[in-house]
């Protein structure tokens, strides 16, 4: 199939760009997977280094801090430095994080390694998403962006889910559980970064490199209330993801008395797998449906997760994770669509940067609050408190967001 361009040229499908599309999708997925490899291993680090649940949340917050800094300082540089170069730099940075995890397993080393991993993900997500979109456009001109959006979602959220699943299985059945999972995923990333050199550049890199500036963040003045509601909602949804990638293994071990690393990985996988599936299934639904159904599912999932902690029920925890994860995936897609709609085209990137900044803040602060709470109250009470706060936030801003669509 060919597509006529405005200048009269004919764009033809490119096999090279199609192959590159799958290389980038693979590299995106395994790098996101690495960012969540520590999830089922935190219990082992707690036993080895003798730190509390609070310190687990601090280590997790270090990842979010690195991601925020990277979003501001480097997340946008692929527009002027090139997609392939910045993607390779992001993967190499995460590989450095893996070396730190292996060589410096002390608590301070874990914090530094998580910061470095966060820096990598801040560079990766926007770069890989844009790269996939442009490669798809060259590979299948005139076919729309559905394939690109599905693969990007699967690589992003699905990759985060695969990381704990793989790490949990290796930690459960292979010797050296704090070394082997990192080395395995390091190898997978090395394959991806090596293959990147065969992919064509798609960004229009200027001949003269423009002066560096950090990423700007702007709020559309005419829709400030709607943007604020979307940002606060996004922060609450990311808090849910943070709960399952930080303290859920501790909840499993200490409250549900299930110390299987594989089970901890399966729980995280189901949450992010459900989120990815929901984003794909709700792709053609209206923004109102994405937000309304998604937020209701998050509330129901939070209730199930809280009940699982008090009833010491693994089936309730798994069900809550699936329901809440699916709801968060659908609702977050709705918040992104809302911000894209209200932001002027020339400020769309800056508005989305503000949304993802709110998400990164939500990823860290409420989870650290839960960690602080466990210093004085039981894990069950801390989970109840976090669930009540998140539910209150969603109930406060959700109706405002729904009225805007």
TrEMBL record:
UniProt keyword terms in alphabetical order: Cell membrane, Membrane, Transmembrane, Transmembrane helix, Transport
Domain of life: Bacteria
Pfam families given in the database record: MFS_1
Subcellular locations according to the entry: Cell membrane
GO function term, MF aspect, one: transmembrane transporter activity
One CC-aspect GO term: plasma membrane
InterPro entries (UniProt xref): MFS, MFS_dom, MFS_trans_sf, MFS_Transporters
Major facilitator superfamily (MFS) profile domain boundaries: 1-405
Xref: Gene3D superfamilies: MFS general substrate transporter like domains
Annotated membrane topology: Multi-pass membrane protein
Transmembrane domains' residue ranges: 21-45, 51-74, 86-105, 111-132, 153-173, 179-199, 225-247, 262-282, 291-311, 317-340, 352-376, 382-402
Predominant location: membrane
Keyword Cell membrane: yes
Xref: PROSITE patterns: MFS
Protein name: MFS transporter
Organism: Parafrankia soli
